[in-house]
Amino acid sequence: MFRNLLSRLFTESDDAPALNGQDAEVAIAALLIRVARADDRYSDAERARIDRILGRRRGLSPDEAAERRAAAEMIEAEAPDTVRLTRTIKQRVLLEDRLTVISALWEVVYADGGRGADEEAMVRLASGLLGVSDVDSNLARQRVIAEMGPTV
C-alpha cells in the first residue's frame, strides 16, 4: 500500500489523475512535515499542530489525524525532493486549496513559538513552487499570526 501511494504521488505525467482526497491529504501532510523538519528539529508541538491541521481539513478524529501524519512522515522521508513533492500537489490540488496549504505551513512554522530561517525559507520555496505569490503567502502568514495570538 505504501509503495502504491508513493507511485501515485510521484507519477510524472501531464494526464495524471487528480489525487483522491486521502492521497492528496497525505501529500499535503508530507509537505507540512518537510517544513517542520527544515530546521532539523521536529518537535511535539509541531506534530500536534500538524495533527490539528489534518483534523480540521478533513474532519478527522485525533487518532485518525495522527495515523495520517504517521503515513505522511514515511512519505516525506521517501519523497525525492521538495520540487517533486510540491509539483505533485500543484498539479492535482486546486489553487484555492493551495492557499490554505500555505496558511497551514505557516501554522507549522509558528507551532513551536517562533519561526526559524530554515523553516521560513522552506515555506517561501514551497509557496513559489505551488504557484502562490509572495504577497499571498505573506498575507497568509499575517492571518496565522493574528489567529495564533501573542504566543507567536
UniProtKB/TrEMBL annotation:
Organism this protein belongs to: Paracoccus suum
Co-chaperone DjlA N-terminal domain segment(s): 26-142
Protein name: TerB family tellurite resistance protein
InterPro entries: DjlA_N, TerB-like
CDD domains in the record: terB_like_2
Signal peptide positions on this chain: none
Gene3D superfamilies: TerB-like
Pfam families attached to this UniProt entry: TerB
